[in-house]
Amino acid sequence: MKINNFMTFDIEEWFHANYEGIDTAVFDAQSTNLEFNVDRLIDICAEVDVKSTCFILGDVAKNKPYIVKKLFDAGHEIASHGSSHKLVYTMDIEEFRSDLKCSTNILEQITGQKVIGFRAPSWSLKRETLPWFYEVLAQEGFLYSSSVYPAKNTLFGIPDFLETPHYPTSSPILEIPQSVMNFFGNKVGYAGGGYLRFFPIWLIKREIRQKNREGKPVFIYAHPREIDIHQPRLKLGMMDGYFHYQGIVGCEEKLSLLLAEFQHSFIRMDEFAKKVTLEETLI
Fold first, then answer.
1. What does the pLDDT look like over 62-79, one tens digit per residue?
2. Is residue 54 within 8 Å of residue 79, measured between CB atoms?
3. In what helix (H) or strand (E) does residue 163 lie, and over which residues does it extend?
4. CA 64 to CA 180: how far, in whole Å?
5. CA 52, 55, 60: angle at the middle one, nearest 5?
6. What are phi and psi for residue 33, nearest 5 degrees?
7. Domains in the chain, ordered, with CATH?
């Protein structure tokens, strides 16, 4: 049986983060390298004919719709990352619904296609948010989410969450959680963001192969800023700064190597979700 993997990108500006004490609004008017970085991501995917899933902030789509159009025209899935990178667990149900509608309306106006996938900014779900979170997604016509980190770190995570794609809380929404590995007795990510930049390429490849042998799909994820060595710097503490910036030099090469290694396994998340939904219907 062929196991599918996913290449995903969270399309946001370099300053979209959720660290305490950082007011990202002060950077809104600054020029950025986002378009150039997105062009590079499009190019490295095109080199091996891989189509990704792109979770795009509504604010980015509103201010730079041509970036959304470029990704869409290159065959990549357009999905929602919320409107302004606000943490889901800081919103109530109606705030989340409004935030979700705002982002999807902008994206759908640009592409003319229904958005069916969502990723929470900074994996910002808690167990108590899950029932109404999936309820709202279902009511708004979504098919899947890729929002849970099934472990725990200082910023996010639900450590007892099932680690494979499934329908949680009797919901019609498929959750595709981040992949984790055992690292000295702790569950940690390895195929995206700071984890992708920190761990050596041989270990990441080994873990993906192992998960695939177990019949489990893996998604890789990255932000455009993670291939940008010339980006401005946020004023972060020592630990946050290390996690946010380590490994940026060489990250683009890592992505290229992973895309080439697993190129025949990658599909878009919407294709996977539709396939799983059909299979569930036929059972």
1. 999 999 999 999 999 999
2. yes
3. none
4. 33
5. 125
6. -95, 15
7. 6-282 (3.20.20.370)
